[in-house]
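User: Reviewer 2 asked us to show a designed sequence for the structure in our supplementary figure. I'm pasting the structure tokens here. Could you produce the per-position amino acids so we can include them in the response letter?
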């Protein structure tokens, strides 16, 4: 899970998956890894931005098919973990940077990336409007956007790390601002 905030409770609980969580597998890891596996198919041969990349496990999945992947996250410790997990054979195709998502997108020329993946990041931003506007700017220029937004309102989820809660209607408002979209729902069975 990418995050735009790294809030810590006294138990050091964080709203992100750590490399050990991914290696352990289980339902939580599976619900996140499969999204990146689908995105990797859609990003084959492309230059990809993994926005709100967290600890970088998703960037590594994307890099299995992508030409290059650049991960961006505001949390410096998450970026340090992501860099530390890179194998030597990945270092020429995967890079990471600690930066605020909006600041990064505002400085981004439209031709740098062919696809932007942002999974579980928008809910960590208090005012998503300018971030969505920047994503829309990239989409208008032909950049493929692949986003995942949790349905917190639909499931009455009370997540202390989310500063903006989305339901289906709020997700549709975001999608409508990004041009023609395809919306897929996730179901656990």
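Assistant: Here is a per-position design you can include in the supplement:
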């Amino acid at each position: 899970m990418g995050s735009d905030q790294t809030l810590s409770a006294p138990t050091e609980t964080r709203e992100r998956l750590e490399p050990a969580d991914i290696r352990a597998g289980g339902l939580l890891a599976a619900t996140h890894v499969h999204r990146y596996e689908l995105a990797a198919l859609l990003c084959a041969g492309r230059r990809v931005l993994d926005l709100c990349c967290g600890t970088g496990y998703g960037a590594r999945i994307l890099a299995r098919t992508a030409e290059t992947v650049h991960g961006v996250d505001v949390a410096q410790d998450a970026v340090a973990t992501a860099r530390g997990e890179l194998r030597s054979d990945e270092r020429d195709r995967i890079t990471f940077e600690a930066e605020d998502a909006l600041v990064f997108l505002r400085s981004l020329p439209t031709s740098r990336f062919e696809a932007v993946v942002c999974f579980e990041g928008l809910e960590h931003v208090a005012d998503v409007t300018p971030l969505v506007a920047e994503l829309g700017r990239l989409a208008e220029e032909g950049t493929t956007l692949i986003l995942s937004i949790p349905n917190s309102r639909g499931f009455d989820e009370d997540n202390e790390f989310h500063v903006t809660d989305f339901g289906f209607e709020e997700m549709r408002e975001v999608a409508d601002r990004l041009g023609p979209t395809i919306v897929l729902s996730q179901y656990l069975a």
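For the response letter, you might also mention the following. The helical segments are 19-24, 26-42, 57-62, 76-85, 101-106, 128-140, 168-176. The radius of gyration is 15 Å.
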